[in-house]
Design goal:
Blueprint (H helix, E strand, L loop, with lengths): L1 H16 L1 H30 L10 E8 L2 E3 L4 H7 L6 E8 L5 E4 L5 E3 L1 E4 L3 H4 L4 E4 L14 E4 L1 H8 L9 E4 L2 E9 L11 E4 L13 E7 L5 H18 L9 E6 H6 L3 H32 L1 H9 L4 H37 L18 H26 L4 H6 L9 H37 L9 E6 L9 H16 L4 E7 L8 E7 L11 E8 L3 H5 L3 E4 L13 E5 H7 L9 E4 L12 E7 L14 E5 L5 H10 L2 E7 L7 H11 L5 E6 H8 L1 H35 L1 H9 L4 H30 L15 H26 L4 H5 L3
Parallel strand pairs: 6-11, 8-10, 17-22, 19-21
Antiparallel strand pairs: 1-2, 1-12, 1-13, 3-12, 4-5, 4-9, 7-10, 8-11, 9-10, 14-23, 14-24, 15-23, 16-17, 16-20, 18-21, 19-22, 20-21
């Protein structure tokens, strides 16, 4: 311990004597370690932290599966079958995936709240702490049992002033009185988040095969995930016997750990980013190792004297490693602060729709895992970049080192070879990062150039919850839409207005359909398509072209024959050689419940919209007039998603936002509006995660490129300094400035080009791992590889040219006297 303290004190003295070296090394390390800390803090929150529920490793998502994959969704009849699997599962619960919100009436103003319908075991499954009152019972979770609510701690304090008398009182939700049974504790953080919860009240005899809730359960003690999956397959056969036409022959049920399902869409991109910051750290290490090698050259006399008076090689290596670890530890402390600030700022600007990070990254914190990771990586980094210089410097030539009085002692071939190898490594790693960043930039450009099939410019969107109350009747909803649209379109500056159940690029229902007159050959339906209710003028708002037939009009109301519009993708897929207009579709046939309706006639074909995202090809879509939806489907739709108003304006849509809202309120003042956005904002949010990946990888690539340029510049500047006498002699003997410049540039570029070649080969293999993150560009795109190779070579040429030019200015007389 005493020896270690002496080494630390000696290291601190050496750092004080070389403040420029110390600052440069610490800053380079802080950049590398800080970037790693920033990304690891996100990875820790998203991937490593357990879900905030009791025994999270035993909580599983219950899913439907097929050869095409699995989906975290279910129907009420499926959930009823799953509830019977109590030999392997407990606390089997169903809950809404998101919900439309619900309007809270009373008080100074109505307010739209996030409300989730849940089954009775939900609170026990997710460990909801109940601060006051209770949750609802099994009897209260039955159809027709009444209306109840459990309120969140946040809503209780914000809206009700933490009044304990709220328990047992009645609040008006969606126009219906609900008895407040309980209040959750402040630590409850469910997904999806909610202001309050109401009973799902699933019908045990339901035949409604619509997939809208989700289901989860806890594995019983001693039950493995494989055992649960086997039981879910047995449940699939039970369901198929009960509902023979409700599931295809290859359909089944399965179970996955809830944590894995929560992060499955972001896991790969986070792993790519953490690999990228690892490369940045390696480049920073190579830079500092190069600095230490140069510094060790100037300390050869000191090290030789220490060896001459009895210090063994191990003792010298330990001293030098102490210095490198101390440098790295200091850089780690600075990097910890930089990483924390950097990731918080980045997530606040562009959170990338990453799950579990909270609003603007508020859940990303520096817990013990992040601190331990930073300290561990600091120590390992110190050993990594300090080992080569320590081993090299600990073998001095005592005779030549003690005779040599200048700083050039020991500046032989061995050190320059080691530094050259480090530069090659830096160049290769920088090229890999540049290639990855360039591919994501190309993907970004490709996404921005995609025609989404609609015009998002100057379109305002706003949501309204119609859950509960009289708007569960289609006639009332259609009247609200018609009256409000008429008033909105009368405003100066408004071009068109409409309503829809779902915006383009956002989730919507999918329903099966059968084509009348065409025999069924495989399964209970001919196919499936997205299902979207819209009012007239919807296609005018988004400028979606009518390719054939006619659009909806006000005459397509509840008293008219049922009609439907389909998109081109659906027409091409299901009518490749015939005209679909005029044919009849039965939508939702065999699903039971509210979905039984007469066939609809196809009256037109509209242009394709990239509804599932800009990076996916358009799929089949069916558009239904809002006035022709059955009451049962309208009620179901209102309970699952909000009504969305869309308005096209001639200028900035937000300049008319207040006037538009006033016109809607003039029709019904009890329905608040929420989530007011421009359609351009909706489009940008749909690509937020890919934009986040591109931004981060671009920052890392730029850092890597800068560090690599500094590395090669430092090596060549050092080489010129050490070869001053040689260069002076060459000039004195007649060598011209251009000859000397070319010699230095050639030596530097030879190292750079070796690194570029190695980097191209490595990048060609590694970038294939990020293929799923790309759009519109191949992982082996030759243009990308050629561009980044030329760019990095040009930067290396500049970094080499500066010291080479300095070499041409050496005065031979001064150089010959140089020591």
């Amino acid at each position: 311990m005493e020896t270690l303290l002496k080494d630390v004190k000696h290291s601190l003295r050496m750092f004080r004597q070389s403040p420029g070296f110390t600052a440069t090394a610490v800053l380079a390390l802080a950049l590398g370690i800080g970037a790693n800390t920033a990304i690891f803090s996100v990875v820790n929150t998203v991937l490593l932290k357990p879900l905030p529920y009791p025994e999270p490793e035993r909580i599983v998502a219950l899913m439907i599966s097929s050869p095409q994959g699995s989906a975290f969704v279910t129907s009420i009849p499926k959930f009823n079958v799953w509830k019977e699997q109590n030999r392997v599962l407990e606390d089997i619960s169903a809950f809404d995936a998101g919900g439309p919100g619900v309007n809270l009436s009373g008080g100074d103003r109505p307010e739209q709240l996030k409300a989730i319908r849940v089954s009775v075991d939900y609170f026990h499954l997710f460990g909801a702490p109940i601060a006051m009152g209770r949750t609802f019972t099994g009897e209260e979770d039955r159809p027709g049992a009444g209306h109840f609510a459990v309120v969140s701690d946040g809503l209780w304090k914000r809206r009700f002033g933490a009044d304990p008398k709220l328990i047992g009182s009645t609040i008006i939700l969606g126009g219906t009185p609900h008895v407040v049974l309980g209040i959750t504790g402040p630590g409850f953080d469910p997904s999806p988040p909610a202001d309050l919860w109401t009973p799902l009240q699933a019908d045990p005899n339901s035949t409604d095969q619509a997939h809208y809730p989700r289901a989860a359960a806890r594995l019983k003690p001693g039950v493995t995930l494989e055992m649960a999956r086997a039981q879910m397959k047995i449940a699939a056969e039970q369901f198929r016997r009960k509902f023979p036409r409700a599931m295809g022959p290859n359909g089944s049920f399965t179970a996955e750990r809830l944590q894995d399902i929560t992060v499955r869409n972001v896991r790969q991109s986070l792993l790519v980013l953490i690999a990228a910051v690892g490369f940045v750290l390696l480049i920073a290490c190579a830079n500092v190792a190069s600095l230490l090698l140069a510094r060790a050259t100037g300390r050869q006399r000191e090290i030789a004297i220490r060896a001459a008076i009895g210090a063994g090689r191990g003792r010298i290596i330990r001293q030098l490693l102490t210095e490198s670890v101390l440098l790295s530890f200091t850089g780690g402390l600075l990097g910890l602060g930089l990483g924390s600030i950097g990731v918080r700022a980045l997530l606040a600007i562009n959170p990338g729709n990453i799950p579990r990070i909270g609003e603007a990254g508020s859940a990303v914190t520096l817990d013990w895992r992040v601190v331990a990771f930073t300290m561990a990586i600091s120590i390992l980094t110190g050993i990594l970049f300090g080992l080569i210089p320590a081993l090299s410097a600990s073998k001095p030539d005592l005779s030549s080192s003690l005779k040599e009085s200048s700083s050039r002692s020991g500046s032989g071939l061995r050190q320059n070879k080691a530094r050259g190898l480090l530069v090659i490594t830096e160049m290769a790693l920088a090229l890999i990062l540049l290639a990855g960043a360039a591919l994501l930039i190309r993907s970004f450009q490709a996404l921005r150039s995609v025609n989404p099939g609609f015009d998002a410019h100057n379109v305002l969107t706003m949501e309204m919850s119609l859950a509960g109350g009289r708007f569960n009747r289609t006639e009332a909803l259609a009247l609200l839409a018609r009256q409000a649209v008429e008033r909105i379109e009368a405003l100066p500056g408004v071009m068109a207005a409409a309503t829809t159940c779902s915006l383009p690029l956002e989730p919507s229902f999918g329903l099966p359909f059968t084509i009348e007159g065409r025999p069924l050959t495989d399964g209970p339906a001919h196919g499936g398509a997205d299902w979207r209710t819209v009012s007239p003028h919807y296609f005018d708002v988004f400028k979606i072209p009518i390719q054939r037939g006619r659009p909806f009009t006000e005459r397509d109301d509840g008293g008219a024959a049922g009609v439907v519009l389909i998109n081109e993708a659906m027409a091409h897929q299901f009518w490749p050689k015939e005209e679909p207009v005029g044919q009849l579709l039965s939508i939702g046939k065999g699903m039971g419940g509210a979905f039984q309706e007469p066939p609809r006639q196809i009256i037109g074909v509209v242009g394709d919209v990239r509804d599932d995202g800009l990076n996916t090809n358009p799929g089949p879509i069916m558009y239904i007039p809002v006035a022709q939806v059955k009451d049962g489907i309208t009620a179901l739709n209102n309970n699952l998603q909000p009504l969305t108003w869309v308005v096209r304006t001639r200028g900035d849509p937000f300049s008319l936002s207040t006037a538009i809202q006033n016109q809607i309120f003039s029709v019904n003042r009890d329905l608040p509006l929420a989530h007011i956005r421009s359609m351009e904002r909706v489009v940008s949010q749909s690509t937020a995660r890919s934009d986040f990946n591109m931004t981060l990888l671009s920052v890392f690539a730029a850092s890597a490129m800068l560090l690599a340029a500094i590395g090669i510049y430092g090596l060549m500047a050092y080489s010129v300094q050490q070869r001053t006498q040689e260069i002076g002699i060459r000039i004195a003997l007649g060598a011209g400035p251009s000859e000397m410049r070319n010699m230095i540039v050639f030596q530097g570029m030879r190292l750079a080009l070796i690194g570029v070649v190695i980097g191209v080969g490595a990048a060609f293999g590694l970038t294939r791992l990020m293929s799923s993150l790309l759009f519109g560009v191949k992982a082996s795109d030759p243009l990308v590889f050629a561009t980044v190779a030329v760019l990095l070579s040009a930067i290396a040429l500049l970094a080499t040219y500066i010291p080479a030019r300095r070499a041409t200015r050496i005065d031979p007389l001064v150089a010959l006297r140089y020591e």
